[in-house]
User: Fold this.
Amino acid sequence: MIPLDHFLILGAILFSIGIFGVLTRRSAIGILMSIELILNTANINFIAFNKFLGAGDGLGQIFALLVITIAAASAVIGLVLIIAVYRNTKNIFAENINLMKW
Amino acid sequence: MVKYAHLIPIFPFLAFTVNILFGRRIKKASALVSIAASFVALLFSIITLFGLLNGNGSYSLGKWLAFGSLTLNFGVMVDPLSCIMLLVVTTVGTLIQIYSIGYMHDDPRFSRFFAYMSLFTASMLGLVLADNLLALFIFWEGVGLCSYLLISFWFERPSAAKAGMKAFITTRIGDVGLLIGILILFSSTGTFSFSGLEHAGGNYALFTVAAFLIFSGAVGKSAQFPLHVWLPDAMEGPTPVSALIHAATMVAAGVYLVGRTFWLFSSHPLSLIWVAYIGAITAFFAASIATVNNDIKRILAYSTISQLGLMMMGLGVGGYSAGIFHLVTHAFFKALLFLCAGSVIHAIGTQDIQKMGGLLPKLKVTGVTFIIASLAISGLPPFSGFWSKDEILSEALNTGHPVLFIIGALTSVLTAFYIFRLIFLVLFGKMRSELHPHESPKVMIIPLSILALFSIFMGFIGSPFTGYAFQGFLRFGTASMPAAPRPDHFMMAVSTLIAVSGIGLAYSVYILNNKILPDSFRAKFALLYRVVYNKYYIDEIYEFIFIRPCILLSNLAFRFDSSVVDGAVNKSAGITVMISELKSWFDMYIVDGIVNLTAKIINAFSRLLQLIQTGLIQFYLLVAILGLVAIILFKFMGGV
Assistant:
């Protein structure tokens, strides 16, 4: 059986990749995708902890489902915003979204 | 019995209020308002008279003013003298206001005229009813104001505006004396009321001075020498005004004042004799001017001055009832004379008697009433003027003043002469200009006729035929007044002779020999004629002595004002501007500077903080994550 540590290491690696993606992607879509990745590492941790530490009541799984739902909703809002930005500026680079800068 | 007398002045005052506020709205009806008010006042005056005869005298209306320990009561004087004045004012006032409907018919300020007339009537009635000197003085100034307003009624004419000012200022000179006199009496007795003053003693010399000063007020108001100059000029006002104010009532207020304070004069003989001589001088002097003047209204104005002088003389020789009696008869026949003159002016549109003549056939009623009034003023029996004038002359002789008697007699000759000169030049002979006279409307003629009846029969109330009822009435309720006169047949004959000689003289000069005599007189006494024709140059003398220096002084004052006072003001303004510039600099650079410095410091700091606000969300995120990492490292490594 695969021990808990492996899951946590996988989650940490994916989380780091997600953070890296968020910080380095120029495209807003890329940032959005990286955020989804970060959320998914959280899901992996929830599931793993549920399996190894929980009393088998499935609370971690329910929480993972909640995170997936919220991730879907936030992805929708994020895409809507990106489309709106695209219509105004004809690109989706994050550094160009500076309309409200001083 | 209920006390009604204080209501009498209220009616005309209400009429004034209505006319001045709603005159534009009610237009011609304002005449009715004023006349109705005067008529009601007349009825109440009659009620008051009967009340007096039934023993209802003066009464108090209650406290008026209270300052310190002193309280002034407002009361109503109901005694024979005030009753007589009430009746004269209301009767003559009502008739003249009826006449005014016709005379002022086309005037654009018709209702204002009646408003002023009502205000005048109210003030005059208030003056008569005042039971203390202070209230009397207030109403005294009230009638003066109305006089001013009505003389200057046609203020578009500069001469009328000027005449109003002249009247106001000249009478004011006398009024200053009157006020000082009142205050002297008050300060030494502590009361203003007539009844209180009469029984209060005081310093003899001081009271004599007070009497002189009070008489100076009467001199101004009754146009006595030397303050007579305003009355002839006052003829610039409408003729009904001249009749009511400057012949019958207001100018008689001076005589009334002397009569009202007669106890003061009679107990200080020096002031009394002063009154007599001023009156006599005025009477003669004004009559002489009237003989050469050519303006119909000015002749009557000088005649009024002269007759008022005669009243003063009558009072001055101690003939209280004689003076007051002449006041009453004069009020009627002089009002009539003025209204007749007004009717003539209305008919032909000029005041110059040299352009008139032969008007009797065309103006029958006016002419006949004019002659009646002239006979009355000349003193021909049985007309009213005879009885009163005769009494003044006989009083002068009986009290041992032959000089005054001679002046009075000469004045009477002159009076008869000038008034018939007027009659002969206006009504008889040939028309001397191309004018087309027409008789006045009925509304003017009826008052003339009523006044003519008064002029004929008024004298009988003070004649032997009624047992000197008038003089008896004046003594009603008082024991201190002189006894009624005895009939003096010698004096009556002399008076008649005087009147006839004056009329005869006028007849011979202006009818029999009108081609030669007037001109030859003029040539013979050229110097005298010129002096008299120019009114003894009194106006010119005043101009030279008072008015010129006054104007000079005011010019000087003006220059002083414009250079020194204005200069100082301008200098201080300049200094103020300088100081405020300094302040503005301080405000701009110091106060504003501090504020701006604060703002600038904040701005500089915010520029520093701006540097990290890059607008790159990934930079923010990086910082957040680095912060998180730092916290975690601190927690798990530094914290252990």
About this structure: The mean pLDDT of chain B is 85. The beta strands of chain B are 59-67, 70-76. The two ends of chain B are 121 Å apart (CA to CA). The longest helix of chain B spans residues 538-610.
